[in-house]
Structure formats: C-alpha cells, structure tokens
User: What shape does this take?
Amino acid sequence: MANMNDPKESKRDELVFTEAELQELERARMLPITFDEDSPETTPERAIRFRRVNPPRRSTPNTPAI
Assistant: This one.
C-alpha cells in the first residue's frame, strides 16, 4: 500500500479513480452476477470440498491448525 503522506503528488494522483472509472464501477455494481461454464455457481457439495489455499496460521506452535 502506498504512503499517502508522500509529498510526491504524482504518486497520489495515480491512486485516484477518474470520474469515468467511478461511473464504470457504479454500472458494474448494478449488473447481476452471471454464471457460465467457466465460472459456475458453487453448490453446497462443492462448498464442503473447498480447501483453503493458505491454511490459517497457528497462534502457538503446539496448537493444531483448524
């Protein structure tokens, strides 16, 4: 993440959305989610088989991961 206290204004301007980009994002929010063969809707059976790519870290070395 960029430091917003950086005195270089050119870097700060790069992080700001243009008005056209904001309008495009707002239009995208209004569109419904469309599922297809490349991105099908997740079924309950699939959700049960889902595994995290990055398992949660253990708080202490002797505690088993969930």
